[in-house]
Amino acid sequence: MKELTFAAVPLTLLLLVASINPPAASAHFFPNITSIPPSLIPNTTIWDAFNNLHGCQKGVKAKGLAKLKKYFQLFGYLNNSYDNFDDDFDEFLEFAVKTYQLNFNLNATGELDPSTLKHIVLPRCGNPDIVNGTSTMRSGKPSDGYSANSTIHTVEHYTFFPNRPRWPPGRTQLTYAFLPDNQLSDNVRSVFSRAFERWSEVTPLNFTETTSFDRADIRIGFFTGDHGDGEPFDGVLGTLAHAFSPPAGRFHLDGDENWVIDGDFLNSSPASAVDLESVAVHEIGHLLGLGHSSVEGAIMYPTISSGVRKVELANDDITGIQELYGANPNYNGSEPTLTPRDEWDMSGAPPRMDYSFLVGLFFLLLLFV
Ligand SMILES: [Zn+2]
Ligand SMILES: [Zn+2]
Questions:
Q1: DSSP class of 249
Q2: 345 annotated to a ligand binding site
Q3: Where does Zn(2+) 1 bind (predicted)?
Q4: Predicted pLDDT at 15
Q5: Which residues contact 342 (CB under 8 A, 6 or more apart)?
Q6: What are phi and psi of 251, to 5 degrees?
Q7: 53 CA from centroid of ligand 2 (Å)
Q8: Domains along the chain?
């Protein structure tokens, strides 16, 4: 794993970072966005060059399209056998763009219009939107009357991995551990604890931290660049993290991001701050079996802008995860809580019958006799 150098960071800031995270760790953490040193905020990020492709459509040739094809293959929009990585906008790329636009509720023009490009360059989860050629998200669903221009979401869009893998029934107590090399502080670990709590609140699942990394069900690590699983990270922004479907339990985060742990962005507009808890809640969704959702407000939506905090599960997320695991018996998001009367009923006592209506009926009959 690559050691990070802080040579350009002023000493005071270095000490601040070191106090949060020991120097041996391979990731940047900041208590809040104002503590991110300017030297760690890049002028451009890996996908910014895509903005030069404005207006491109089928039939044109433009420098940079080859790289865009790689992008679409990375996220499943061009299948793995596609290898025509030149700068020609071919029919396969057009189909990929249209599918992408459908998934992200954009007008499916097949053209690289401003709203599509604006979305393509957003930081996002490294997991593909389309797995094994099976389009999940919105493009893979039958027509549901959903309008691309509508902001009203009435249809669920949660998805699962192919074959719907999940943790086996009866395995409700799951353990997680952090890569020892990362030497994460208590503050950082508590961010993950809160993220797990979001999912345990609505399911019968429970998550406990263990120190045994190799034996934990879920293994969390910060890595930079190529880290051995064929899905290298890409520096600041671009892909932020990825996680494997159950029961693999592998959860990797890009150590090059400027991870912010307090989540309080106020109204500032940081160039590269990424809210750790928001990304953690999303990736845990994958670890439990959820795929990406087309619902923009859902945790399982694939992109998240820098400086944005999104940690509350949406109805779409809750419905999806409960379809896999059922609800937490104590979850009262939509169910009424037990009343003393309910508890009395559950004691096995026979229900009491109300006979007063029979008395009324008797006198009514007398009137007609
Ligand atoms: Zn994801
Ligand atoms: Zn990885």
A1: -
A2: no
A3: 227, 229, 242, 252
A4: 40
A5: none
A6: -130, 110
A7: 29
A8: 11-37+162-325 (3.40.390.10), 48-120 (1.10.101.10)
> Which strand ranges, in their side-by-side order, compose the sheet holding 218-223?
206-209, 173-178, 218-223, 250-254, 241-243
Q: With contact defined as beta carbons under 8 Å apart, do 284 and 244 qualify?
A: no
pLDDT tens per residue across span 193-214: 999 999 999 999 999 999 999 9
Q: Among 127, 156, 74, which Cα is nearest to 286's?
A: 127
User: Nearest 5°: CA angle at 134, between 133 and 138?
Assistant: 125
Ligand nearest to the CA of 278: 1
Residue carrying structure tokens 């742990």: 261
Token digits of residue 53: 């492709």
What distance in angstroms lies between residue 138's CA and the mean position of ligand 1's atoms? 15
Alpha-carbon distance of 274 to 260, in angstroms, equals 6
Task: Find out whether 96 and 78 touch, Cβ atoms under 8 Å.
Answer: yes
pLDDT tens digits for range 280-318: 999 999 999 999 999 999 999 999 988 889 999 999 999
Residue 88: strand pairing partners: 61
Q: How far apart are CA 88 and CA 64, in angstroms?
A: 10
Name residue 28's beta-bridge partners: 258
216-226 mean pLDDT: 97
Helix (H) / strand (E) containing 199: helix 186-200
Of 111, 156, 277, 283, the active-site residue reads: 283
312 is catalytic: no
Q: How is residue 102 written in tokens?
A: 């459908």
